Amino acid sequence: MMYRFNDEVLLELFRRVQLAMFTNTDVIDNIRRMELFANPDGTLSLTEEYKTLTTNEVNAYIHQAAVAMDKLRPADEDENFVDVAQVALDQARESDNEFN
Fold first, then answer.
1. In the chain, N or C terminus with fewer CB closer than 10 Å?
2. ∠ at Cα 89 (68, 76), nearest 5°?
3. In this predicted model, what pLDDT tens digit does every residue of 13-32 receive, in sequence order?
4. 43 alpha carbon, distance to own chain's centre
């Protein structure tokens, strides 16, 4: 039987490539970790265990980035200061929540 990736798997492939770039790790190793199962309709989906694992992993990276940003934040930051990195992290969290 021939199988095709469902949209969720395609999105995860894209996220794995991004993660490899952000963490300076091998993209093949990141993709190799994906866990899939075959659906009766001939599509491949991510396992629930894998989704939980990857969500926790991404949240840990976001936390590490937030801690690093706090160390770099200027002490004399005014109330009108727009922290571009913080905005990007908030958007990453929102998109991760939408994915799950």
1. N
2. 55
3. 999 998 888 888 899 998 99
4. 22
> What's the whole-model pTM score?
0.66
Please, which residues have CB within 8 angstroms of residue 72's CB and are 6 or more apart in sequence? none
**DSSP designation for 83:** -
Q: Does the pLDDT at position 77 exceed 90?
A: no
Residue 90 CA neighbour count, 13 Å, CB half: 6
Cα 3–17–59 angle (5° rounding)? 105
Compute the distance between CA of residue 60 and CA of residue 99 in angstroms, rounded to an integer: 16
Measured CA to CA, the distance from residue 35 to residue 48 in angstroms comes to 9
